[in-house]
Design a protein that fits this description.
Blueprint lengths: L20 H36 L10 E4 L9 H18 L2 E3 L17 H11 L5 E4 L13 H4 L3 H7 L36
Parallel strand pairs: 1-2, 1-3
Length: 202
């Protein structure tokens, strides 16, 4: 019995003969790898950008007051009745504008042989620690009374535009002819510490 020979392959295969299923899967694999790399890079970029913006703009918890009024009380030199009146004055003003009050005592801090008034520095640091997200801290002497409670601090004094209109620019630090002068081109949004003058201009 004689079987027929299998057909002979042509010596001139068509151009598409070099493409087979194996070469297609390799191309698809390369495309998938490329897509995976692009996806990882995009994810890393989004992560880095989100961290950068979150670190530069810290989120303020809801309910945080705009201002904390700090009044240091010296129990050895102030009577109990006087301190109660001072506290009431601050609390009434704070309640009207949604502020927070803080009444540290001089005896709460160790200041060595320094004058008792130096306890104001650690008391302000104490307030900053208790209220880390509050933008403004108002240190008010126990010998001062708020006589116009209708004026809110954060808009009538502490806003950048208002500060620029109130700042004493290019003025002698010690009047009348001190060589050291206040800044003449300081912007309100660059101010971190506001000091007021007394009756003598100091």
């Amino acid at each position: 019995m004689q079987f027929a020979y299998p057909p002979r392959k042509t010596s001139h295969p068509p151009p598409y003969a070099i493409r087979n299923s194996r070469s297609l899967s390799f191309t698809q694999r390369r495309q998938l790898q490329f897509a995976a790399v692009i996806t990882c890079i995009a994810f890393l970029l989004i992560l880095l950008l989100s961290r950068a913006f979150s670190s530069s703009e810290e989120r303020i918890p809801p309910g945080t007051s705009q201002v904390v009024i700090v009044t240091l009380l010296d129990e050895e030199n102030l009577s109990a009745g006087y301190m109660e009146k001072i506290k009431k004055n601050r609390k009434d003003y704070a309640a009207r504008h949604g502020y927070t009050t803080f009444f540290p005592k001089t005896s709460d801090y160790a200041f060595g042989d320094s004058p008792r008034s130096w306890a104001l520095i650690p008391s302000l640091r104490h307030a900053l620690t208790l209220h880390p997200h509050t933008p403004y801290f108002f240190s008010l002497s126990p010998h001062a009374i708020i006589t116009n409670p209708s004026l809110p601090l954060h808009t009538s004094i502490l806003s950048p535009r208002k500060l620029e209109s109130l700042m004493l620019k290019d003025r002698p630090v010690v009047p009348p002819d001190s060589v050291i002068k206040t800044f003449g081109n300081l912007r309100g949004d660059r101010v971190d510490l506001v000091l007021t003058q007394d009756g003598e201009g100091l």
